[in-house]
Amino acid sequence: MKRITFNLGFTIIFTLTFFLLINTFSNVLVQALPTEEAPKPKPFLPGESLHISSCQKWSSHIRDFKVKDGEEAKQITILLYHRIIDDSAIKDIHYTKEGELYPTIVLKSEFKKQMQYLKDQGYTTLTNEELKLFIQNRHKIPKKSIVITFDDGFKDNYEEAYPILKKHEFTALNFVIASYITKNTMEYKEGEVQYFSASDIKNSCDVFEFQSHTYNLHKRTKEGVAFLVDRDQQQIKEDLKTSIEVIRPVRPTFAYPYGEYDKEARNALKQLNIGMAFTSEFKDTGPNISMLEIPRKPVYPTDTIEDFKKKIK
């Protein structure tokens, strides 16, 4: 009888102790178990295409602005943006060692003010084709005309900038690095470095004209030389051809990474029938300038709304 009582007591104590240990260390055990891996970005490979030509047809339509003689624009500003980040999503990684925001970042609150100013002042955003005709002196445009461009194809362009542009009925050119576009849609993480997915592009192609910023040459050598200057003409041609195959723009246009280029890069563009290319030279644009050296004015995080007004005169 004593033996049975002892065994029963031992079993009860052992069971209670076991469940107490399990409860105490359950979180550690769960964390130690293998978890499902986060989805990895699936890039577009050479020969693959986004198939967005049909939703980009609007960009080839030339509007008749009915501008009277003497009232047309003589010069216009082309704005250059990279990233638009919500103010609340700014982190330490967005600051330089000197404690300033990286020059490629513009706060969403400032971007909203800038776009609202353009709307309030009655500015018209031009398409790439309308800009081309203006430079060729073949089309009259309103004095308050402007071109908005984005480089690199950051996902925040879709999440943060696109709704603001659409609200004001503005359009913009978006120069994407084709190898960074993902086939699968990745969860948006505010402030982190992410790029357009195929779905993002298809959902925003009513506002953005998508063009090439290389397929995979948006890099520098160890010595700091831009790949577009370091690589030979054949390598540049192959890369740009691949980027065009992925994007399939209505009329191919290009933006030089870092604004850097040389004679070989320009010749590669000509051989691929890319008739327009954008730099980051800080000045306005007028008729009869070089179509392969179109200047743009970068917008910086330090720009106040007064700075912005001066930038577009």
TrEMBL record:
Query: Which InterPro entries is this protein grouped with?
Result: Glyco_hydro/deAcase_b/a-brl, NODB_dom, Polysacch_Deacetylase
Compartment(s) where it occurs, according to its Swiss-Prot or TrEMBL record = Secreted
Under the heading SUPFAM superfamilies, the entry gives: Glycoside hydrolase/deacetylase
Principal location listed in the UniProt entry: secreted
Alphabetized, the UniProt keywords read: Signal
> Could you tell me which residue ranges the NodB homology domain spans?
144-313
According to UniProt, the name of this protein is Peptidoglycan/xylan/chitin deacetylase (PgdA/CDA1 family)
* Native source organism of the sequence: Peribacillus deserti
